[in-house]
Design goal:
Rossmann fold, eight-stranded mixed beta sheet, six-stranded mixed beta sheet, 10 helices, 23% strand, EC 3.1.3.-, HAD_sf, HAD-like_sf
Length: 267
């Protein structure tokens, strides 16, 4: 069956390890779009630092962001769907992070808030620079009136492993996912890339067998299993590869371009 929608993770999938979108990958995706396949970026990033990649390729449509918590229209930046999380329930996680020296940020659809943006450690500052985000100072809960999309803890892999293990013993009111070696995300319990992709596809009358999804990490599994063809990058953990129908080359070998060329352009 013809692929009508291509769902692509961004970091570790679409981009190489230098956070670059290669010219050949861009060319392949533009050709796929011209052939009738809609490109939808599905990222742990927010709309503000996901939409620019669509703009660079001259593509419109939608981006699924914050791991499925926010779906936005590219041209208008309008939020067409969101899974808003309960901010009050975050207090124990904020207290844990502050007590244990774990960096965290709180995300609305387009905003990212931290405790002390002017005093960030170099490693944290470089991370935000790579993700094209400028952190704002976290206000009091009562002053944060925009719906919350995601809570993210960031740190060395050993620290994140410990956090994930400890939070996993809590009675979590949120969906917790590992979106990278150095990131743990908390969201609305119904939010995921797969849930957002399903909602978007159904609104367009697109069935799973008409969807190609490509990703590289645990937060991609829900969309890989929802899509008729789910493809994992070669740089994926083994559990992600096991959940996929197929494995393509790594993000540093332009695996996305190879997969789209094989399943969309060559048919």
């Amino acid at each position: 069956m013809t692929i009508k929608l291509i769902a692509l993770d961004v970091d570790g999938t679409l981009l190489n390890d230098h956070h670059e979108l290669t010219e050949w990958t861009q060319e392949i995706l533009i050709r796929a779009s011209q052939q009738g396949a809609e490109i939808v970026l599905c990222s742990g990033r927010g709309p503000a630092n996901t939409i620019p990649f669509m703009k660079r390729m001259g593509l419109d449509g939608y981006v699924i962001t914050h791991n499925g918590a926010v779906t936005a229209e590219v041209e208008s930046r309008e939020i067409v769907h969101r899974f808003a999380m309960d901010g009050q329930g975050l207090e124990p996680f904020v207290t844990y992070c502050r007590t244990n020296g774990v960096h965290f940020d709180i995300n609305t659809a387009f905003g990212l808030y931290v405790d002390q943006p002017e005093g960030l450690e170099l490693q944290v500052r470089e991370m935000y620079n790579n993700f094209m985000m400028e952190p704002l100072k976290l206000p009091q809960w009562a002053d944060l009136t925009e719906p919350l999309a995601k809570f993210t803890a960031f740190g060395p892999i050993e620290q994140m492993n410990k956090v994930q293990q400890e939070w996993g013993t809590w009675n979590l009111p949120y969906y917790m996912t590992r979106s990278g070696d150095f990131f743990i995300d908390l969201m609305h319990p119904e939010a995921s890339k797969g849930a957002a992709l399903k909602r978007l596809a159904e609104s367009k009358g697109i069935v799973p067998s008409e969807i190609l999804a490509i990703g590289n990490y645990y937060n991609d599994i829900t969309m890989l299993t929802y899509a008729g063809k789910g493809i994992a990058m070669d740089n994926s953990p083994e559990e992600v590869k096991a959940a996929a129908d197929e494995v393509t080359l790594s993000n540093n070998e332009q695996g996305v371009a190879h997969a789209v060329q094989k399943h969309v352009l060559a048919v």
